[in-house]
Amino acid sequence: MKKKLLYVTGSRAEYGIMKRLLQKIVDNGSIELSIVATGMHCDPKYGNTYLNIIEDGFKIDKLIDINIDSSTNSAVISTMSRCQEIFGVFFENNQYDAVMILGDRYEMLPIAIAAAMHGIPIIHLHGGEQTLGNYDEFIRHCITKMSHLHLVSTECYRRRVIQLGEEPSSVVNIGALGAENALSLPILDKNELEIKYGVSLDNYFVVAFHPETLTSQSVYQQITEITTALELAHKNHQCSYIFIGSNSDTNSDIITKHLVSFCDRLNFKYLVSIPTQDYLGLCKYSCGLIGNSSSGLIEVPSLGIPTINIGDRQAGRIRGETVIDVKCNCKDLASSIDEIVLRDNKSYLSYNNPYYKKNSAEIALSTINSFMSGIKENMPAIKQFYDLPLYNDQIKP
Description:
alpha/beta; 13 strands; seven-stranded parallel sheet; single chain; six-stranded parallel sheet
């Protein structure tokens, strides 16, 4: 009898990272895969992106709308509360041998808690990373402590997860699936993308900016500084911008409102949500990515183009030489855009992506298959806290 694996997805970005691995699991056939879509996938404001999953040929076993609200921190907490209650009932009525989740978004924490309380082993991807400017930071580590298999993206992150008390044999460095996706997913050519989105793909930047939720600078101040710099660069270099909609983090509505108005005034393209391969294509033909998306550090470097990483949202995360870090102010951002426009972009092709590992998805598939085959039915998901050898003598009673 096949073991049953549930993958829960809450956002376009995280699903896009996982899609090649999901297809490999389906094609391999040794595991029965189920998919539940929730969070932003179910909200028209974010593009009803569950449709992308269906268009890719996957069956969604259940849509679970948690009525996501990111207008304030209090609204986010209410969303998390609803999510935990709904998934608590869901796991009571639906049995799985393991649940697979990626990352650190706030709706993933209550899902992990609900699964753990029902004794379901958790497979977690992208643990051990740091994002010091956002509440994703502590959410990610909380999920690590409830998880039983850890598929991490670098050796540094593997060591950190072990440092958190996880058994070394349960922590596997597979590289970042997204870094491999950038080189493996089929990307439309430039003319096809121009026709599909009604834009000219000449002398432009892609912009993807999300709120910093652990910062003294207000979201309004952040986005005002950014758009002021973008307008200045537009005047100086005649460059244009393609904006990608923000995630549903606290105060993301402020960013969306400001950017839609900015795009309307200057006739730039604003895209609420697009498929992963189109996002990568738009980045590939651009002068670079501007913003604070994790994709700028993990996926985009595989394309050989630069990232201007703004502020502290990704502070602490490993980054390669294609990433230019700037403070969230007009002067620094405008200066970095000047630097990229005046530089030959081909020079970035020689830099390595620290997240890339050959056959990342295949390594993940093999590791998951091995883990699933070792799960014993009707046995509680118990794990020991792994103490680092250095401290063993210090913690003995």
